[in-house]
Amino acid sequence: MTWYVIAAVLLSTAGLLVLGALGARLWLDAARLARAVDGASRALAEAGGEIPLRG
């Protein structure tokens, strides 16, 4: 019976470590995506400012 408790604790600890690693990876990917979107929107805004308006 003691081994079941030890195994459950070890498996839950391993699961939490995996979830933490996946969460960190997700945060890094989201930060990288935010930088890419920011750069693209700045490039579009700059390109839009260079378009001559008729009127």
Relative helix content: over 70%
Could you tell me the radius of gyration in angstroms? 24 Å
* H and E string: H
So what's the overall shape? rod-shaped
Secondary structural class: mainly alpha
Strand content: under 5%
Q: Which runs of at least 5 residues are low in confidence (pLDDT < 50)?
A: none
Measure the end-to-end span.
84 Å
Mean pLDDT equals 93
Work out the number of β strands.
0
* Biggest sheet record: none
Number of helices: 1
Which short descriptors sum up this protein?
single chain; 55 residues; mainly alpha; 1 helix; 87% helix; rod-shaped
What would you say about this model in short?
This protein is mainly α and 55 residues long. The protein is 87% helix and 0% strand. The chain has a domain at 20-47.
3D structure, described in words:
The protein has 55 residues and is mainly α. The chain has a domain at 20-47. It contains one helix and no strands. The chain has one helix at 2-49. The termini are far apart.
List the helices and strands and how they pair.
Blueprint: H1 2-49
